[in-house]
Amino acid sequence: MTKMQKDNKPLIISLLMTGSELVSGEITDTNSVFLARELMSDGVMVDRKLVVGDGFGAITDALLLLTEKSDVVIVNGGLGSTIDDLTAEVVASVSGRKLVENSRAIEHIEKRFGRKFLSENSPFYDQIKKQALIPESADLLDNPVGLALGFKLKIQRAICYFTPGVPGEMQEMFRQSILPDIRLLFGLKPRFGISKLNIIGLGESQVQQLIHRHIARETWDRVRLGFRASLATVELKMSIDDPASEPILKESRERIKELLAEYLFSESGSLPETVIRLLRDNRMRIAVAESCTGGLIASQITAVPGASDVFEGGVISYSNQSKTRLLGVHEGDIEVFGAVSQEVATAMVKGVLEKTGADIAVAVTGIAGPTGGSELKPVGTVYIAWGISGSIQTRLLLIKRERSVFQQLVSTVALDLIRRSLLGLDVDGIYYFDEISRKRL
Amino acid sequence: MTKMQKDNKPLIISLLMTGSELVSGEITDTNSVFLARELMSDGVMVDRKLVVGDGFGAITDALLLLTEKSDVVIVNGGLGSTIDDLTAEVVASVSGRKLVENSRAIEHIEKRFGRKFLSENSPFYDQIKKQALIPESADLLDNPVGLALGFKLKIQRAICYFTPGVPGEMQEMFRQSILPDIRLLFGLKPRFGISKLNIIGLGESQVQQLIHRHIARETWDRVRLGFRASLATVELKMSIDDPASEPILKESRERIKELLAEYLFSESGSLPETVIRLLRDNRMRIAVAESCTGGLIASQITAVPGASDVFEGGVISYSNQSKTRLLGVHEGDIEVFGAVSQEVATAMVKGVLEKTGADIAVAVTGIAGPTGGSELKPVGTVYIAWGISGSIQTRLLLIKRERSVFQQLVSTVALDLIRRSLLGLDVDGIYYFDEISRKRL
Q: Is the pTM of this model over 0.80?
């Protein structure tokens, strides 16, 4: 599994994550997840991951331990300007180097924040200065996003990369400086033949079952499968170590695509991106009318750069009054059928199509909870209506999940129903998290 | 910081998380987050956390390392029935004990799955038997939820608890068996005097400077400060170890609240929760009109249970046409002043107040990027307008951040301006991520 170095010894990479808030569980360590996944794409499996608090002794111990046993150590956190940012000091002590004010670091700060922040009158003077202190003769790692520069130096047998804790800053530094450097030093090549498939509706175990039932076991000696499930979608990753396995990768990939059928929504790109692309291809503009999702569908669409090409706008008709005032839903319909009903969902789509002049629209009305349910319409009930003027369809789902998960799942289904419609696919697809369609399994 | 043992030495607890899928980043390690948080409630800060793959050598090394330096080691994972579940074998090897079929474990399996699973004809026979192999004379830890029992034994200087990787099983085992055992052995009591302050507008380093400039250093020997920064807000946590420090905690807390002034938005609860509470107190209903945030403000409000008490609804007027059609903004105003202008932002608030009948509203129009900027109005320019009918205010900000971060920060400022208005506070507050207000620093 683990990539070999040029001299055929396995490359040992360790991660050292520092931060009391990581050890205490106040924040979840997502940085090491990012690093491990990125390295994995190059075929390198991280050997171990050590998480310690912001103590001088703890970081020192950890750094000595890992640098003794690893070829590469990536250290994350503790490069900021506050008193609990101790990494540079530890490195200086462990490596017997002085901390010196680095002129390139000073330049970097000036460029980002202007000279006045470096004047002694600036309230930020001491802090800024602290961030420019780098162990003597370490190589700097550029931070295109933030203030704290990273640095690289050798400690014991390991090449060490020191990175800031802010995720966006660490990620850019890793992609732009560290990964290319590791590739160069250890002769790594990007992993061969990685292929992804994005799935909506089926859960990880259903996909796994489908594959194992229909594809011969021997395939998996040569093609490696990885699953990454998020709230409503699953990413299936296929990869091979040996270029000679490419035909079997291709073949099994085509077979899996057939098996997944319309549950496969893209080979790259999120579901909102897929929907935006399809709308663009069809030269259609979309509008939304949201009740229980409260703006989440629109927010997911508009998070994608270029959404303005296809997104007209929408209405968040949260109260009953706003359904009437903003969308022209008849008060009588709400009284007779209830705000969560097929009739009101349909009227919402009609209303938003008319008000905005969009070509296609989707509307949702449901009960997100924790209160507001009844015996007939329990918490988790939701009607989704969608379509173009004169051709509107609806669907009823029951998604018994906690409020924010419910909102996420409903938004995802709404987008998927638009996708299925635009592709002319069956809109009766199964969503494993929906109690009503699960009954059909 | 760390709780003392009865004999006044600090109690050192380490976590060892095993599993190749944890090291590779395929799954995020939430079990250690749970353990660290639970222990924190008892005043015990986890000393370190080591994550290793499913290799015999890796687990052996890690166990030897941690048991040499810790009083307690909680080991998670590797107790299952598959070939990569190696923990019991490692323990046997490290502690020089035999693995023996444990009769209580056999009983547990029988009770949960019935006798037939233990017949030699069962396809699960070998697997089940494997889970009953426990190191000789270890104490069993009950698993009320699943198949794999945990166990406890001493290795080197540490009491070790071995737990299954399935989150629900580990959690029950921790609560029912491990935590009571640790409390008893080391005389722990739940932690004393934790206090939180939530801040919007100031960055972590600004808060720290403010505090260190105005409060005597000696305070921090007895009161511990912790910072947790999210995208736009900062949580400041204060805690003490010694009940006798309570007066100084109270005093410094009051002083910090004075220093933070209107930048302090709550002592518990998110910014949307705070705004909802204020609206409820004022018996006011709110509406939103969103362009560049595309539904995110509404989505953050409606993510809070009970938002329907105060949230009327809103309009996502993303295209120019939708600003006119949905909100009645004059086409001429958009042509003359541009869609991103004080005039249009004001017209959006007026429009949404009129259309929804809400008491108060907020509107945003800006350039989220990456394209769409001009020299006069670069990417990151945003106008926020808010107020009640007849009294509308506006503010111009420049937030040069990546699209999704921009949308998050603008949503947060929009909510904060509502908060400040409702409290009668200065609405010219500084937001450290806004280039325009930062110039005033």
A: no
